[in-house]
Amino acid sequence: MKSRIPVVLLACGSFNPITNMHLRLFEVARDHLHQTAVPELKLLCGADFLKTFQTPNLWKDTHIQEIVEKFGLVCVTRAGHDPKGYVLDSPILQRYQDQIHLAREPVQNEISATYVRWALSQGQSVKYLLPDAVISYIREHNLYLQDPSPERE
């Protein structure tokens, strides 16, 4: 067995609610970093989060630069997103692209927290989309009973 290097991943995003695919981000990123032998602290995000770096007035350029320059990030692909394009479209991300690892998720999915919230508000099952403990917590606390927009994240 190949020896493993220590990896510390700091995740960001709403995780509202946390889905199995959110948890999968950690597995994909860890495997990618083990294959590339990069033992460092990295910010972990999905491609949808990486795209927010382009949202006007959401991020300060100095904050984006500090994240990618000091720590770097691991971005896990997501259907409908072009993380490589997001990097190339941003002068800051392009400048530090050697600090940005794009990890391909081999299991494509369309699960989004927005969809899960909508399904719950409609009384639909989310079994196998969320960990059982998360489903129990949602039911116990009567969360997501309102009717949010069904738009995808």
Structure characterization notes:
With 153 residues, the chain is α/β, with parallel strands linked by helices. It contains 7 helices and 4 strands. It is globular. It starts with 7 loop residues before the first strand and ends in a 13-residue tail after the last helix. The mean pLDDT is 82.
What is the topology?
Elements: E1 8-11, H1 20-36, E2 41-46, H2 47-51, H3 61-71, E3 73-76, H4 83-89, H5 91-95, E4 100-103, H6 113-121, H7 132-140
Parallel strand pairs: 1-2, 2-3, 3-4
Protein name: Nicotinamide nucleotide adenylyltransferase 3
Organism: Ovis aries (Sheep)
Largest sheet: 4 strands, parallel
Shape descriptor reads: globular
> In which range does the helix fraction lie?
40-55%
Unreliable stretches: none
- Taken as a percent bin, the fraction of beta residues is 5-15%
The value of Rg in angstroms is: 17 Å
Order of the strands making up the biggest sheet = 1-2-3-4
Structural class: alpha/beta
**End-to-end distance:** 38 Å
Identify the notable features of this structure and list them briefly.
four-stranded parallel sheet, alpha/beta, 4 strands, globular, 153 residues
Task: Describe the structure concisely.
By secondary structure, the chain is of the alpha/beta class.
